[in-house]
Design a protein that fits this description.
The chain is an alpha/beta fold. The protein has two domains: about 100 residues, 2-Layer Sandwich (Transcription Regulator spoIIAA); about 180 residues, Rossmann fold. The chain has eight helices and 16 strands. A seven-stranded mixed sheet has the order 10-9-8-11-14-16-15, sandwiched between helices. It has a five-stranded mixed sheet with strand order 1-2-3-4-5. A two-stranded antiparallel sheet has the order 6-7. It is globular, with a radius of gyration of 19 Å. Bound molecules: S-adenosylmethionine.
Amino acid sequence: MNTLFQKAIDLRLPHLNAETNSIRLFDGSGDGLAEVYLDQLGEHWLLSTHDGMLPEDFRTTLSQFGKTVYWKKLDQHEKQSPSLLCGSPVAAPFLAKENGITYQLSFDSGYSQGLFLDQRENRARIMKMVKPEQRILNTFAYTGAFSVVAASAGAITTTLDLSQPYLNWAKTNMSLNQINPDKHYFCKGDTFHWLSRFAKSGKRFDGIILDPPTFSRDSKGKIFRVEKDYHRLVALAKSLLAPDGWILACTNCRKLSAWEFEEQLIKGMGEEASLESLPMPPEYSESPYLKSYLIHHGHSPD
Ligand SMILES: C[S@@+](CC[C@H](N)C(=O)[O-])C[C@H]1O[C@@H](n2cnc3c(N)ncnc32)[C@H](O)[C@@H]1O
């Protein structure tokens, strides 16, 4: 097993550098062990396996790398924080770097640690694409990673999430990158509610990021399911686009094929929309479960 981990890590070394210290190191069956994942988060490692599937071998093998390793149980109902597997406990929070941007992470924050590593290439794309003063709307924003990259490129961002603690975390992430959060907007509440409100007041955005959870319930109990409802989200976002505006639409819903997702996007945008499929980071060797499309109204400007 040591050889499998070592081989996978050696393959990923070219992606680790002074600008980026947070990537997937081991990707399940893509690296020879189904449903076993290892991520580097800053200086630390996070092993994810299904509950009850932590052979003592993993502890022995991973402790040989001299890192602090935490263990996350996948598919658990309680959505607990990861637990220490080996090495010294980490005083939360800690810092991680990706493409020169710093993010605050935590092993004490429940199921997710503050940054979804599978969105690295999409964040890089947004950072490259956004122009100073553009208005960028980041919905279902979590800790605001997309807002931070857009703001670092000079955009005026609006960060929207149901959770006030996550919005506060997004502000912290901005401050860590010398971005003044007071110059940006933060909206607490349901995405559908805010999109309708923006539409009524005639607000427009140059770019809108849609990356919802597979299932969500708003404060009035209304349910959103990616498989059924994504087109409604896209149609609402479309009504808020400035001329030449774009939408980044993502889903990690494994039940939905890329083709079915495209159908939803076209249903929401109309036949004239241009869709560019964006790839996952190259170290994700198991399956391309994250589907991402950059959408323009008509033909893409380039
Ligand atoms: C999968 S995370 C999004 C990840 C994020 N796009 C990123 O790249 O870091 C889902 C987020 O959506 C938020 N959320 C769930 N339902 C929502 C809703 N109806 N309106 C706004 N935010 C919602 C959750 O609080 C959570 O922060």
